[in-house]
Amino acid sequence: MKGEVRGMIPDADAGRESQSTEGAFGGYRRPSFPVFDFHAHFPVEEDFAKKDEYIRRFGREKWEKIAREADRLQEDWRQAWSFLRPDTEREPLEALMARWAAEVDRYGLDGIAFVTGGGNDLLARILGSEPRRFVGFAHHSPEKPDAAEELRRAVTELGLRGYKILAPLLEGSLADERLYPVWQAAEDLEVPILIHFGILGGGGGIGNAPNIDPLVIHDVAKAFPDVTFVIPHFGCGYTRELLQLAWACPNVSVDTSGNNEWVHWFPYELDLKKLFWLFYETVGPRRIIFGSDSSWFPRGFAHRYLLDQIRACRELRIGEDDMALIFGGNAKRLLKLDDRAVPGERG
Ligand SMILES: [Zn+2]
User: Fold this and answer.
1) Where would a tag sit more exposed on the chain, N or C end, judged by fewer CB atoms within 10 A?
2) Distance 119 CA to ligand 1 centre (A)
3) Which of 190, 136, 129, 221 is nearest to 334 (CA)?
4) pLDDT tens for residues 245-288?
């Protein structure tokens, strides 16, 4: 892979020799290939749970009750995974940027893509602080009347390199032809679209919505074969549906981020290794993209997700070149980081 994709950090290649030495991260081995995290969230306040809308309709008391329950469920989950509680004190933005930059260096990442970060303008400001380490996605509702124009602005003026959608938060159908100008903008700009389907949030989060099933974009993906649609978290509970979609649409890829807590709900046995194998045999190594879904501190980069995923691939005896694609090469190709060209400015 060396020479094919350039490191984002200027002197990334200088340390390549030492990357193969053991004990690089608290006793863990560094991967033998560059790692790029395609899916992280910059930890600023966002309303992913539609809090304001809920409170307006049903009142604050009910919201607080639901939030308390969700917090309890999520604390159970953190305990099971040995994750510390997220910092509750709001850190200044500059401090958070510095912390994330330090994480990228600490784990020897080639770079990290923040798929959300407080809106397009704020995220662009965050990226500006670390252009060699951070990359970002536009994130606004495709149902906004000016969504296509906003995507064009976010890419050509703000330098964002993809478009993130949270499908469970949308009201209408993602298949609606009224949204076609948005997909057309992505095609013109040559940026990938990352669409979250399936359950959203931790325990107590969103379990159903009009666009919960990834198959809803079947006709959209067929109508825009030049747009790469990446569906995160192995389908996030909709694995069979995502495999079916990806089988039908060669422009659909999968990202591997998240904790996959839903694997236990299947009528057949499913674990991380099986997930990798199902997608590897259905779509091959060029359409599987490593992500972590990291966001908050003190956890920072969710290193154990990377370790678990590498282990799954190694145990499946996935070859070195394919692992290099999955853990970094594919992300850098989709985000056009090979030559650092600005998307939307074709020569
Ligand atoms: Zn995410």
Assistant:
1) C
2) 15
3) 190
4) 999 999 999 999 999 999 999 999 999 999 999 999 999 999 99
Topology of domain 32-43+93-334, CATH: TIM Barrel (3.20.20)
Rounded distance from Cα 312 to ligand 1 centre (Å): 21
Distance from residue 337's CA to the centre of ligand 1 (Å): 21
Taking CA atoms, 253 is separated from 38, 48, 154, 162, 169, in Å, by 12, 24, 23, 14, 21
Is the pTM above the cut of 0.85? yes
* Neighbour order of strands in the sheet with 111-116: 36-41, 111-116, 134-136
Q: Which two tokens stand for residue 314?
A: 């190694």
Cα of 166 from ligand 1 centre, angstroms = 9
Which single residue is written with the structure tokens 């995290």? Answer: 37
Tell me the residues surrounding ligand 1 (ion) with CB < 5 Å: 293
Q: What are phi and psi of 280, to 5 degrees?
A: -60, -45
Residue 3 Cα to ligand 1 midpoint, Å, equals: 30
What count of other Cβ atoms lies within 10 Å of the Cβ of residue 196?
Answer: 25
What's the gap in Å between 115 CA and the centre of ligand 1? Answer: 7
How far does the centroid of ligand 1 lie from the alpha carbon of residue 149, in Å? 24
Q: What pLDDT does 23 receive?
A: 56
> H-helix or E-strand containing 113?
strand 111-116
Q: Count Cβ atoms below 10 Å from residue 99 Cβ, excluding itself.
A: 15
What pLDDT digit, counting tens, does each position of 39-52 carry?
Answer: 999 999 887 778 88
Distance from the alpha carbon of residue 22 to the mean position of ligand 1, in angstroms = 30
> 104 CA distance to ligand 1 centroid (A)?
18
Q: Find out whether 331 and 36 touch, Cβ atoms under 8 Å.
A: yes
Assess contact for 44 and 117: CB atoms under 8 A. Answer: yes
- Enumerate the domain spans of the chain: 32-43+93-334
CA of 184: how far to CAs of 109, 140, 141, 286, in Å?
Answer: 32, 16, 15, 23
Q: For the sheet with 163-166, list strands across it.
A: 163-166, 193-196, 229-231, 252-255, 288-289
Vertex 14 angle, CA 12 and 20, to 5°: 85
